[in-house]
Amino acid sequence: FASFNRLDMLHVDEYLFCCLAQLEEQNCLPLPDILSSCEDLMKETVLRAFLWILGIMALLGNIFSIAYHIKMVEKKTVTTELTKYLACADCLFGVYMICIASVDQHYRGVYIEYAKTWKYSASCAFLGTLATFSSEASVLVLFVITSDRLLRITRPFSKKNLTLRSVHKVMLIVWSLVIAIAVVPLIPSDYFKGHYYSSVCMSIHITRESPPGWQYSVAVCHGLNLLAFLFIFFAYGYMYTRIKSSSKAVGNKRSQEMTIARKMTLIVLTDFCCWFPINIMGQRLLALGGMDIPGEMYSWTIVFILPINSAMNPILYTISTL
C-alpha cells in the first residue's frame, strides 16, 4: 500500500489488509474483531489484566474449594457433592482464561498476522469447547441444585429427593449432556464451516455479526440457559416465601434445611446475576433485532462478568458450609 499516495477508504476480504494499510477503523472494511486490535488479541490493557487475575482466582479458588470439601468436610451430603461438581466446572473456566491470556501474551504486537490461523486452529477449537463445557455445566449443576433445594423445602420427606447415590447418577447424565453440547461444533459440517469462535474462542452470540453456527450458539446460550435461569429465579422466589413463612418451624432438622437453603440461595443468585445480563443482551431486541451492543459491553461481558462468577463462587462455597 506504500505506492498509494492517498488512500481514504478500503474494502477488503480480511482486516489484516486494513492493518497493513494503516487506516482508521471507520475507513476500512471489514470491521475488526471487537476484542482485538492489529497488535494484540486483547487490545484493552485493563481487560488483559482481568484475564490473568480472574483466571488465577477461578483456578486456585476452585481447587481450594474442591480440596476443602474433600478433606475438611467430614459428613458428605448432597449439597457438598453438588458443590464439588460446580467447583470442577468453574475450575475449568479458570483454565480457559489463563490459556487465552497466555495466547494473548504469545502474539503480543503481531496478533493480526496470525489471527486467521489462530481462530481456525485446533487449540482455539479446544478452548472454545472447554469454555462451553464449563459454562453449560455450571448452569445445569445450578439447575440441579435448585431442583434439589426446592424438593427438600416443599417436600422434605419425599422419596424423590436426591441421595448420595443418586446425585452421582444425575450428574453423570448432566455432564454427558454438556459434553454433547460442547462437541457438536467440532463435527465437520457445512453449517459450522470450521469457524465458530471469536478471537477468544468464545461462542456467546451477543453481537450483530452472524458467523457460521450462530443459531446454535443462540439456542444454547440464550435458549437453554434462559429457560434454566427462569426456573431458578421463580423457584428461589417461591422458596423464599416458604422459608419466610416457616421461620418459626420447630425442629433442628427443619431449621438446618432452611439455613442451608439460604446459603445456597446466595450462590445460585450470584450465578444468576452473572448469566442473566448475557441472556438479556442476546435477545431479539438487541443483537438479533438490529439494536447493536457497544463493543465495550461485549468485551466486559466476556472478560469480566462471566469469569467473575467462577472466581467468586469458591468464597460462597465456604460460606455455605459454615
TrEMBL record:
Highest taxon above the source species: Eukaryota
Recorded GO CC terms: plasma membrane
Gene Ontology annotations of biological process type: adenylate cyclase-activating G protein-coupled receptor signaling pathway; hormone-mediated signaling pathway
InterPro entries, alphabetized: GPCR_Rhodpsn, GPCR_Rhodpsn_7TM, Gphrmn_rcpt_fam
Positions of the G-protein coupled receptors family 1 profile domain: 61-317
Spans through the membrane: 49-70, 82-103, 123-145, 166-187, 216-239, 260-278, 298-319
Gene Ontology MF term list: G protein-coupled peptide receptor activity; protein-hormone receptor activity
Subcellular location: Membrane
Keywords: Leucine-rich repeat, Membrane, Repeat, Transmembrane, Transmembrane helix
Extent of the signal sequence: none
Predominant cellular place of this UniProt entry's protein: membrane
Protein name: G-protein coupled receptors family 1 profile domain-containing protein
